[in-house]
Design a protein that fits this description.
heterodimer, A: 687 residues, Rossmann fold, FAD/NAD(P)-binding domain, 5 domains, 5-stranded parallel beta sheet, 34 strands, globular, B: alpha/beta, 2 domains
Chain lengths: 687, 300
């Protein structure tokens, strides 16, 4: 096949439908291309290639006059193939295809050569760069000979939306979309929505109460007619493609019928455990709960749940079941099993949040070893009025601390842990410093590397803290230890740090240490990534399509991300992203349908042997096996045109539009001419 | 498994107690070893500071000798009990592995004296050998006089697990604690395990060194330890012999037994005190003997 092609091209007799009349346009891109590539030379070179009717160079091909140039030539010269040598197709392929289409040409007769990112920006020898530009041009011109007209497919969009994760990002996105009249399924893994924000006491920099601004939104979600709220639930399966996703959600058993329970909590009082004795997850295990519990007073939905790990009846079946007796609404059902819900949605927003760094992995700070070393999330609960101490800040011995050290960047900006800055810790440490000072009047020390307070009102908050008498020590803490060098350190935790402002090592004894733990991806972010077929960065954060221009899109159409699952983010940023994701979703829904690129693969059924080797390798699960015909079948809507199956098919029965053999081999032939491979052959044939 | 034993200078002089007790323990446990023939000083930290390449040759010579003398064994396991020797041998191996140019120079220098250095020797600490090769379960079987009622503070010193933590955790090592538990002692949980004892500064800048060893003894005492177990000749010396100086400088009244972990293990294995070098200690471990006899502590 390849030999045939090269020979044919060598003879200059191309096998193509109709006589190609190619228009070639090379762009200066101001100085971007012209400074490294002799654009006029490329233009003249192309003019001499077979099939080229017109060859031009222009300062900015993407400008309106540039596009009009192409359109005018199509009409006046009857061009039926267009090649533009300019920047990356990612930037302007769409522009030029549209221009060609406007002039009446099928847009897939257009092809683009990247002589900016691939040539002028990466080479410093003008002569060689020009030569490379010519080679790429020849390859493209030989390629378009074999281009065929293709049609875009349009698929309708299901207007229902799935949102995974009911923290502040998920809640915001759900309310925005539901208020626009669209139906939302909000799936949350925990028994209540609210996420991390529900655990906080105050929010920086305004110090408004987190619960006061969050719980009304939680209630609105619960009450909204357009929102189906499934808490204590997880997404199990996802199939389909943009506009038409089929999703299965597992509703874990609470052993309480959600519709019947009114949250009166009589059953909790009635539990045969008179004392709560199991660690309370919501309070960071600083307090105890019973086997039947409600995470916190404003939990939404206001429904109790059983923990089968600790409930006697699940372990021995010998409980008196006083809880069931106490419920006059008969809401308790200890035989409940997981329920699986199948739903169809058109778009998905992932807002699965973050987890905090495990401070035990930085043993120099003594977390898990010294009882009075706390994480910031534990302090959030301690200082919270609905927390384990009703807002009293006390050490584990029950003593109000006289001195507290807050250590910044625990797990962040650390070559041994995470290299990234977690972005929120400086500000929440300042907030905690303020609250601790306010609640205890202790001496509060902040140990920081750099204070990072960009944000509206953030630097002002830092200024305010400095006037409140909070101490700031610039230096990374070396160690927290319990041994005493001098009598003042006896029975204290001593923080050893190099104070880089005074240039000496200091030892500061304190009663309580707070570790400002950084943010990291959830441990199952990788599973989520595979489930929804999106990408993660090396660190494990969900990857956006473009860090600046498509921050909530993913590489999978119809799947969006919002909040800290994409990277460390504070509440304002998470809410802004949630709004953006909601807008993206609504824009797709409003369009009603979506056009799919036609560069998909298809199967020539006559040649398919039904070996199924293409099915498992498709990264988009686009290929299925038809038991009736014993042939493979490619769902065009799912196919992303990656070409993996084309290469893998043993019988060569898979072809990909825009990348068929003729096109590829002709392009390769055009490219290889620089090495003289084809020229020699031609000469030999001529001779 | 057969080991080759590299004593280093200390274990033949100030640290003689360490050698006597270690070899007695290995004999009782039937651990097969022979002393490295024609060994030389490891160079310690001093020579490294003067001329590092020559220092590496010095240390590498011992490793090359071990390779030569163990050439019929499947593995070259060289036991280096002194913390400084152990660290210097590991450092030499790592440095030569990472710097091919220096390695070539060192190999060439050793070749002059007919030695071949490849770097295949495994540098082993006695703690590593006893816990990971021999195993606590086997040791427990051979304990005849368990250290009942003795509270031991295991002190590893700064070089045993740092900077190279080849066999134990860098910040909270546990092998010595496990051995002491196997010997029947109660171990004290403390955060001084790898803190510097002052090292050679006790002999040069005592103002700096003395507070360092003082806090270790002070913290051990505070946690009601009866003995500090060490694995380094210098640590043992600093903590045991300067207690009077510490007391006068810090106006304290500290007294605690400081022994090599091999001595404590040896007692539990029923080895007679003389073979463990107990007679060579500066201060007689009266408390230890009293508690083992079932009596009351002489000093608290």
């Amino acid at each position: 096949m390849s030999e045939n092609n090269i020979k044919m091209n060598g003879n200059g007799t191309h096998k193509s439908a109709g006589t190609p009349k190619i228009g070639f346009y090379v762009c200066h891109c101001g100085h971007n291309i012209a400074s490294q590539v002799d654009v006029e030379d490329v233009q003249k070179f192309a003019a001499g290639l077979p099939g080229v009717t017109i060859s031009r160079d222009y300062k900015y091909m993407c400008s309106d006059p540039g596009q009009e140039l192409i359109q005018k030539d199509i009409k006046e010269l009857g061009l039926n193939r267009i090649v533009v040598a300019s920047c990356s197709p990612l930037l302007h392929e769409h522009t030029f295809r549209k221009a060609a289409e406007k002039a009446g040409l099928n847009p897939y007769f257009f092809h683009m050569v990247n002589i900016r990112e691939n040539v002028s920006w990466v080479h410093d020898n003008r002569e060689s760069a020009t030569k490379k530009a010519k080679d790429l041009t020849r390859a493209a011109i030989q390629r378009v000979f074999f281009h065929k007209p293709l049609e875009k497919k349009s698929v309708p969009i299901n207007p229902d939306v799935l949102i995974v994760g009911g923290g502040i990002a998920g809640i915001t996105a759900a309310l925005t979309i539901a208020n626009a009249g669209k139906h939302v399924y909000l799936v949350e893994r925990e028994p209540t929505i609210g996420g991390h924000m529900a655990m906080f006491d105050k929010t920086f920099p305004t110090l408004d109460c987190a619960a006061c601004i969050l719980t009304p939104k939680m209630s609105s979600v619960k009450a909204h007619p357009n929102i189906t709220l499934w808490t204590y639930s997880e997404v199990e399966k996802v199939e389909g493609f943009v506009g038409n996703y089929k999703v299965q959600v597992k509703r874990k058993p609470r052993y309480v019928i959600e519709e019947l329970c009114v949250g009166c909590m009589e059953c909790i009082d009635a539990c045969i455990y008179k004392e709560a004795k199991y660690p309370d997850e919501f309070n960071q295990k600083l307090s105890k709960r019973k086997p039947i519990y409600i995470p916190f007073p404003q939990a939404t939905p206001q429904v109790v749940l059983f923990d089968p790990e600790t409930c006697i009846d699940f372990k021995s079946h010998r409980c008196k079941k006083t809880c069931i007796e106490s419920c006059d609404r008969k809401a308790i059902d200890l035989k409940q099993v997981p329920e699986y819900k199948d739903i169809n949605v058109g778009t998905v927003i992932l807002s699965t949040g973050f987890k905090t760094y495990n401070a035990e992995l930085s043993p120099q700070y003594g977390y898990g070893k010294y009882p009075n070393v706390y994480t910031s999330l534990e302090i959030e609960r301690l200082v919270n009025a609905s927390g384990p101490t009703s807002g009293e800040i006390v050490t584990r011995d029950g003593i109000k601390p006289k001195s507290v050290g807050i250590i910044h960047c625990v797990g962040s900006r650390d070559q041994k842990a995470h290299k990234w800055c977690s972005k929120v810790c400086c500000m929440y440490s300042l907030k905690l410093a303020h609250l601790i000072k306010e609640h205890t009047d202790a001496e509060v020390y902040n140990f920081y590397i750099d204070m990072r307070t960009p944000g509206k009102g953030y630097e002002e908050f830092y200024d305010k803290l400095m006037t409140e008498g909070v101490h700031f020590v610039r230096g990374r803490v070396a160690e927290v230890s319990d041994w005493a060098l001098v009598p003042e350190e006896e029975n204290k935790l001593t923080i050893r740090v190099e104070d880089t402002m005074v240039g000496m090592v200091r030892r500061i004894p304190v009663d309580m240490v707070v570790l400002a733990v950084g943010l990291e991806p959830r441990e199952d972010a990788g599973d989520m990534r595979r489930l929804f077929n999106i990408s993660c960065s090396n660190e494990g954060w969900f990857l956006e399509r473009h860090p600046k221009l498509a921050p909530v899109n993913t590489f999978t159409d119809g799947i969006f991300i919002a909040g800290a699952c994409q990277g460390p983010k504070d509440i304002p940023d998470s809410v802004a992203q949630a709004g953006a994701a909601a807008a993206e979703v609504l824009s797709l829904i409003s369009a009603g349908s979506i056009e799919l690129e036609p560069n998909t693969a298809f199967i020539t059924e006559d040649n398919c042997s039904g070996c199924k080797s293409c099915i498992p390798i498709c990264p988009y699960t686009a290929i299925s096996y038809n038991e009736g015909t014993k042939k493979a079948y490619i769902n065009e809507a799912l196919c992303k045109g990656c070409g993996t199956c084309v290469a893998a098919c043993p019988s060569g029965s898979i072809t990909q539009n825009l990348f068929d053999d003729e096109e590829i081999f002709s392009e390769i032939d055009g490219l290889l001419k620089f090495a003289g491979i084809e020229l020699e052959e031609t000469e030999a044939e001529h001779a | 498994m057969k080991y080759i034993y590299y004593p280093g200078c200390s274990l033949k002089s100030t640290g003689r107690v360490y050698e006597e007790s270690l070899l007695s323990v290995m004999d009782v446990l039937n651990i097969d070893y022979k002393e490295l023939d024609d060994w030389n000083c490891c160079g310690a930290t001093a020579y490294m500071a003067v001329d590092d390449r020559k220092a590496y040759v010095l240390a590498a010579r011992n490793l090359a000798l071990a390779e030569e003398q163990m050439k019929n064994e499947p593995e070259v396991n060289i036991i280096a009990p002194c913390a400084a020797c152990f660290m210097v041998l590991l450092k030499t191996q790592k440095f030569l592995e990472e710097n091919p140019e220096d390695k070539a120079a060192v190999v060439a220098a050793l070749k002059e004296s007919g030695l071949n250095y490849t770097g295949r020797a495994k540098v082993r600490h006695p703690l590593d050998v006893l816990v990971n090769d021999y195993g606590e379960a086997e040791i427990i079987k051979r304990i005849t006089k368990p250290l009942k009622g003795i509270r031991v503070a295991s002190y590893y010193g700064c070089q045993t697990v740092r900077p190279y933590s080849v066999f134990d955790d860098q910040r909270n090592p546990e092998t010595m604690d496990r051995l002491m538990k196997a010997a029947g002692a109660e171990v004290v949980d403390w955060s001084m395990k790898t803190r510097c004892c002052g090292a050679s500064l006790t002999g040069t800048v005592q103002d700096v060194a003395l507070p360092l060893s003082y806090v270790i003894v002070h913290e051990a005492k505070k946690r009601r330890a009866d003995a500090v177990a060490t694995a380094c000749p210098l640590c043992q010396f600093n903590l045991e012999c300067y207690q009077t100086d510490m007391n006068s400088k810090f106006k304290s009244d500290l007294k605690i037994d400081v022994l090599y972990f091999t001595q404590l293990l040896g007692i539990a294995l029923g080895i007679e005190p003389k073979k463990l070098g107990m007679n060579r200690l500066f201060t007689e471990p009266e408390n230890l003997y009293k508690i083992l006899e079932g009596g009351n502590r002489v000093y608290v």
